Amino acid sequence: MRRWSFGLLALLLASTLPPYLNCQQLTWEQLDSAGSASYQSGKYLDAETQHQAALQQAEALPPNDLRLAVSLNNLAMDYLAEGKYALAEPLFRRSLEMRERLLGAHSAPAARTRDNLAALYQLQSRVSEAETLFQQALADQEAVLGRNDPEVARTLNNLSVLYSGTSRYEEAGRLARRALDIDEATLAPNDPVLATCLANLAGAEMMQNRGLDVQPLYQRALRIAEKALGPDHPAVAPMLNGLAAFYEREGNKKQAEKLFKRALAIQQRALGPDSPAVAATLASLSQLRTSEHKHRREGALNTEANGAPGGQPQGEFH
Hints:
The chain is mostly helical. The protein has helices at 28-40, 44-59, 67-82, 85-103, 108-123, 127-145, 150-165, 169-186, 192-207, 215-229, 236-249, 253-271, 276-305. Helix 4 (85-103) runs antiparallel to helix 5 (108-123). The chain is globular and about 65 Å long. Mean pLDDT is 87; it is low at 1-21 and 300-318.
């Protein structure tokens, strides 16, 4: 059985970089804000460049300056989005160590970095390590921030993705519904984080085969993401892949292929051909085409067996 995966959004709100300034002329605050704005816009390579410059400045600060922990975490987020997992892990670890040492092991900033590191482990299929870190982060966030804080919802959402990826769909749905309840009560109606929760809930419900109509959940998620981020933002691609998976399960292969192709084009432009996200979408598209080709061959053989005029099987989708 194919395991559908859905994107993890961790958007950072920030101001834009003045176009007439270069990295050497900017303060740490300007560089960090510029990198966060680029990340939110889906321009991960620009974000990486700006956050690298911010980290270079932060490394020169006094050793206990927490701006270093922020820069380590933010650059690691860029690497995570780009699929550069080996580069992201040591930065997350350094940031986590620093925040635990200076702010406390159970502080909200430490929990945030622990959640990010867990997301990395999940993408590397280090499921046991990821689940432990997610659960630790969730416990600390609920204790420090309260059970209905948006950061609690973010970790619930991420943990629901892990459970979906390991076929624990009922538990995934429960966590996704709780995250959605928090986000709908605390976020604006068109916040892209809300779109992620909707898509994750739809995926968990779809895989339980309970006959629920998950199409409206996917469509609402896609509308929110496109309106908030633009139709070509890389964070839109997971919504397209989820809806494509739904159409494939419903037998609408043509619409599924259309959405997989659109997701693939977005990811190739934004992330490059070597991205793990691109590889995953290519695999989904290939499996769809293989399934359709097999179905058509079986249909042709059945027709010949029944004595009707036969012919060459139709070609694969283009």
